[in-house]
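User: For my dataset I need records formatted as: sequence, then structure tokens, nothing else. Please produce one.
Assistant:
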Amino acid sequence: MTTWSPEEERAFVARRRRRNLAIGIVLGLFAALFYGITISRMTL
């Protein structure tokens, strides 16, 4: 197992947080897109 210094661990956690945030935003946008498509198809 690799032992990280405190600044390496902080950098890793920050990168992971940014990646998780980006994935969450993309998933939210896809959900909004499918919701919008569904609503528009129901009204036609």
